[in-house]
Every structure is written in C-alpha cells, then in structure tokens.
Design goal:
The protein is an alpha/beta fold and 236 residues long. The protein folds into two domains: 5-17 and 111-231, Rossmann fold; 23-103. Helix content is 48%, strand content 12%. The chain has helices at 23-33, 40-52, 54-63, 66-83, 91-103, 116-126, 139-146, 159-162, 169-179, 193-202, 228-231; strands at residues 5-8, 15-16, 111-112, 129-134, 156-158, 186-190, 206-210, 221-222. The chain has a six-stranded parallel sheet with strand order 5-4-1-6-7-8, sandwiched between helices. Helix 1 crosses helix 2 and helix 3 runs antiparallel to helix 4 (66-83). It is elongated, with a radius of gyration of 19 Å.
Amino acid sequence: MIPRLVTFDCAGTLVAVPQGWSMGGFAADCARHVGLCPTEADAAEYQRLYMSRLPEFVEANMSRDPGQRKDYWRRLATDWLASTGQTADALDPMLEAADELGFGANSILFSLYDDVVPCLDALDALGVRASVVSNWDYSLHRVLRMFGIEDRFVTVTASLEEGVEKPDPKLFEITLRRAGFETGETLHVGDDLVDDVQGAVNAGIRPVLLDRSLTHSERPAIRSLLDLPEALGWID
C-alpha cells in the first residue's frame, strides 16, 4: 500500500554530516578561520563547556526565541575565548565565521545527498506528502532552508524543540498530529536501526531502513532514496 505521508530522518538520510564532528572541533575551525590558533585542548574545552550547558541549550531550543538562542551561543563563545586566553575582539568575527562555515554556500558541516530532490519529486508525482522528524536542534529548519527544500515538507520536527528524541514515539506522534495524518497511512525512512526503525515501530509506523553502505545487509533496506518509490510496493 502506498502511504499518504513519508517522514524522513535528516542526518545521514537527507543531509550528509561529517563523521566524528563535534561542537568543539567546529568552534576551533571557526577560530582558525578568523586567524586564531586554537589547540586540540582548546577544542576539548569548548566541547566541555557546551556539554556542561546542555540544559540551557535545550531551554533555548524549546523557547523558539531566536534572541535567546543567539545569546546562548554568544555567552558560550565569550566564556570559551576567555578560558583559552583569546582576545574578546574575536567574538563577533568568530560568530560570523560560524554562520559562514555552518550555513553558507561552502558549508563544511552539511551537504545535501543527490537523491533527495529526485525522491521528493517522485513522491509528489505519486501524491505522497513528506515531513521531517529528526534528532536535531532548531538549526534543522535553517539547514533545510539552506538547500531550498524546507517548503517541500508538510512539517519539520526537531527533537530539541520538543524536548523528546527518537526512538521515543512521542516525536513521531507530534509530527503526525501537526501534519494531520494517521500512523497507518505513514511510512518513515531513516538510517538508524534504533532511532528510526525501532522508533517508527514504537509509534506504529512502517519503517524503511536507508543503508547507503549496505552495512546492515541482513535487514531489508534501500541503498538510495531513489529506490523509495519502488520500495513503497514491497514494504509490509
């Protein structure tokens, strides 16, 4: 049965993200971009500060207040520069570098898989709607906008804005309620066996495992989103 709605994970499904990247490593990249020379220890210190303030970051996400989120990153960067002996004059250039390197045309963090737009076009042709449900922060919306595909989705649900993560079925339930679809008419596509496959099952939704490298070849899976329209006919 062809579903009426397909929900997609983002990282590893729609958007490629470098393996092993970290907030601390990215902060160090931004610092180097503006002429600073952070060490590995400096990157680790940024990561430590970020992890120690996760509750504050979650609160900023759930507030959906751009000002509160901006203030969070400014405070974090300010404290990091001070703790590593860097000049405060680097703060604004470093934040601008974060925008450029994270969300600019030459982003070092994100790239759109080539099969995404053709897949969405194929679903459109079938009359199937699409949504995104991802363990991500508020920047999920910005990343999809960056690639010009945010308006291809009925809803975009980021876990940190909701306070619950996959595989908890609540994140799927939030998505379906907002999109106006039922579990029985929905199919979920993602690359993680726990968050996506088990999470969808927990929510009563049919899962499709996207395994781009076929590392989980013992399980039924598709290797490309281009295979999804065909898969709609054989997924139970």
